[in-house]
From TrEMBL:
PANTHER family: HEPATOCELLULAR CARCINOMA-ASSOCIATED ANTIGEN, PROTEIN-LYSINE METHYLTRANSFERASE C42C1.13. The keyword Transferase applies. Its EC number is 2.1.1.-. The gene is EFM6. Pfam families: Methyltransf_16 (PF10294). The keyword Aminoacyl-tRNA synthetase does not apply. Transmembrane segments: none annotated. The lineage of its organism: Eukaryota, Fungi, Fungi incertae sedis, Mucoromycota, Mucoromycotina. One of its GO terms (biological process) is methylation. It is found in: Cytoplasm. Gene3D superfamilies: Vaccinia Virus protein VP39. This is Protein-lysine N-methyltransferase EFM6. Its main location: cytoplasm.
Length: 232
């Protein structure tokens, strides 16, 4: 994945990166997509106003997986992205898989205008919606419930939010077939508390088939497919 104004490989901790970012619109080239994603980034909206490293690994994997699936990946499926930030992952997946039923990119209220701008920049208004989804809050919007797929890129970074993040995964997986694609970058030892908590309710399967896996695990990133444990 190439970004015109940024170099993903150079990203350090969020605190460092926050100072690096100036608001701009750039072109994000993703191998496997016929056209770049136009992306407005602006950290004045919040920490998600910048693309984070895990976007690269989840997108490259999904491009590869779609090829493996003879281009049937996510066909007719409803997808919700949580903590979407700029919305890059959801937007790129909607471009990659135009035969999905619906994509809803979600985040807190402060990210809405950036996500809406990015939907418009990519002419994806018909397929992609932006909605507020605050982790830990009761989810009532019907378009967020019973999704086939949940996408979560770089959402494990704030220890205080681990319990509400797990609650949100639980609320979004009322449908037992829902699959969560979770891209994670290790930052702190405390991250293990998220996994301890989440593993009480969910099965985590690390994606081993990804041709890029070796490369990104060296940088502390991992990709999981997560499903709710069956009720006993
Ligand atoms: C590290 S950023 C990742 C953004 C994007 N997924 C990416 O990979 O570039 C984490 C995102 O989670 C969102 N977030 C943090 N706490 C949240 C909460 N309590 N409810 C909803 N979203 C939250 C932030 O606004 C931010 O957009």
């Amino acid at each position: 994945m190439n970004t015109k104004n940024t170099d993903l490989a150079e990203y350090g901790d969020f605190e460092q990166r926050e100072q690096e970012v100036t608001a701009h619109i750039g072109k994000i080239e993703i191998k496997g997509l016929t056209e770049p994603i136009l992306l407005s980034q602006d950290l004045s909206s919040g920490c998600g106003g910048k693309i984070w490293e895990c976007t690269q690994i989840i997108l490259e994997y999904l491009v590869w997986k779609r090829e493996q699936s003879q281009h049937t990946l996510f066909k007719d499926q409803t997808i919700v992205e949580i903590g979407a930030g700029t919305g890059l992952v959801g937007l790129a997946v909607a471009k990659l898989c135009p035969d999905i039923k619906q994509m809803v990119i979600t985040d807190q209220i402060n990210m809405m205008s950036l996500m809406q701008e990015n939907i418009k920049l990519n002419l994806l208004d018909a397929l992609v919606k932006a909605k507020v989804l605050n982790w830990g809050e009761k989810i009532e919007q019907p378009e967020l419930l019973n999704a086939d797929v949940i996408l979560a890129s770089d959402c494990i970074y704030h220890e205080e939010a681990f319990p509400i993040l797990v609650d949100t995964f639980l609320s979004l997986t009322t449908n037992e077939k829902t699959v969560i694609y979770l891209a994670y970058r290790k930052r702190r030892n405390a991250d293990k508390r998220f996994f301890q908590l989440a593993k009480k309710k969910f099965e985590f399967v690390e994606v081993m088939e990804d041709p890029k896996r070796e490369e990104y695990t060296r940088q502390g990133m991992r990709l999981f497919i997560v499903k709710k444990k069956a009720m006993k």
